[in-house]
Design goal:
The structure is a homodimer. Chain A is mainly alpha-helical. Chain A has helices spanning 5-12, 18-49, 54-61, 65-73, 80-89, 94-103. Chain A is globular and about 35 Å long. The interface between A and B is medium-sized, with 30 and 28 residues. The structure holds a DNA duplex.
Chain lengths: 113, 113
DNA sequence: TCATTCTATGTCATATGTGACATATCGTCA
DNA sequence: TGACGATATGTCACATATGACATAGAATGA
C-alpha cells in the first residue's frame, strides 16, 4: 500500500473544505484497511476449515508460505486483488466476499449493526 | 494480476462463458473481473451523480483523467485497491461496495433498470 | 468551419506488489 | 535434549500498477 498517501494528502492542502475532506479521506483509508482485515480473516478461516497448512494453501495459489502468512496477517504489502483472488480460488462466492468486506467493518467480536 | 491470463481473456473477445476453460480462464478469474466491473460501474455512476467530469474526479483523487477513464473502462491495468479506495473517497460505504461487488456478478448485457 | 469540453487510448518512468528465499519462533512429540 | 511441522518476518529481483503526458475522437456551440 501507499504509505506516502497520507503525506501526499497533507501536503496537498486540499483546497475546499479542507478539514472535513481530510477527515473523510482518513476515514476512507481506515475503511479500506478494515475491508482488508475482513478478507484476511475470511481467508484464514477458510484455510483452517479446509484443514490446510499455509504451505499447502500457498501451493494451491501458486504462491509462497510467506505470502500467505502476510495475507492472513493483513500485511500492508498485500493487495486487495490478491486477497480476493485467493478467496475465490478457495471457493468463496462474490456474496461471501461482500459479506467478508462488510464484516471487516469495525472491531472484531462486534455484533453486526 | 497476470498479464498472460488477461491477454488470453481479451484475445477471446470475452464474449460468452463457454470457451473460458480452454483458455485457462478459471471461474475465479471470471469472478474477479466481474467484481471489478461492478466497481467500475459504481464509480462512474457516483461520479456522474455528483456532476463531476473525469478531470474533476481525478483532481479529487489526486490522480489523472486518463486513469479515471481506465478505471471506469475496466482497464486491466487498474487494481481493485484503486477502485475501492476511489469509491471510498467518493463517499461510498463498505455496504455500498459489497453491493457493487455482488452487482458485478452476472451478465452485463442486461440493460438493468 | 473553429473552439471548447469531455472522454478514450497509448506510452513511459517510477512506485508498489509478488514469489521466493532465509531465518526465527513456537508448539509437539519422541 | 533434538527433530519436526507450522507460522511469522525480513529481504530481494522481478513483475505489475500508477500518475503523468500526449493525442485522438466525439459532442456541443459559436
Amino acid at each position: 500500500m501507499k504509505n506516502t498517501k497520507r503525506a501526499k494528502l497533507e501536503a496537498a492542502g486540499w483546497a475546499v473544505g479542507s478539514v472535513k475532506k481530510f477527515l473523510g479521506l482518513s476515514e476512507a483509508d481506515e475503511a479500506l484497511i478494515n475491508m482488508k482485515r475482513g478478507l484476511s480473516r475470511s481467508l484464514r478461516a477458510r484455510r483452517q476449515q479446509e484443514g490446510l497448512s499455509q504451505v499447502q494453501l500457498a501451493t494451491r495459489l501458486r504462491s509462497s508460505q510467506s505470502r500467505v502468512a502476510k495475507m492472513e496477517a493483513g500485511d500492508p504489502s498485500v493487495s486487495m486483488d490478491l486477497l480476493v483472488s485467493s478467496l475465490l480460488l478457495l471457493g468463496a462466492t462474490s456474496a461471501d466476499l461482500a459479506k467478508a468486506i462488510r464484516g471487516g467493518e469495525k472491531g472484531k467480536g462486534r455484533h453486526a449493526a
